[in-house]
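Quick note —
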Amino acid sequence: MKMSRIRTLVGALFVSWSMAGQAAELPISVGNASGSPGAQIVLELQVDFGPSFEMMTQNLKFEYDPGVLAFSADDSSVVAGPTTTSWSAYFNQLVALSNSSFTTQNFNAQTGDPGRKGYSLDFMGASGTLERVGIVRYNLAFDIDPAAQVGTTTQVTFRNSAFSDGNDEFFFPDALNSPGVTVSVVSVPEPSQALLLLAGLGLLALGSSRARSWF
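Predicted structure written out below.
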């Protein structure tokens, strides 16, 4: 099916219209994560931009439960090829390709649920595009509340997120919006339990090695 859409960011206003072009797939995925109360987990948002992608706009938004998680921009990063860029440096890189009016970062973005907190990073290239090649990883760091109950599960959802090269707009998969990415709060093994686990693994490895020696 031939279709193409471009969404332009003017301040916080999005305007969509139809253009001629061939829509294509842009593989986007995020894995689930788990951590103990007070620990930090990292959600790896992986985007395969293919052999060449001139990013003209980026609308990245995610929502989470602030009673369980807290987004840490200081500990987040973007990995493109061999280069790892801090989140603040990435934001400044986008600003340099546009201006303060066309690149915005909001730590309290509006959400569909008053009980959740939203973060957004929106970009539109005014003086150039950001070239992307191959797989780019957006490492989103979250701190788990020290008071979070073990056994709690919560979702991080990506709503209205998309990348555009100016011809086609690639929205995130529906599954990343509902149900979203699951974060589980788990317990930390006691030192004695950890030692028993290591000892058990050692015995399994020894048994496997002896079994192979019979052949």
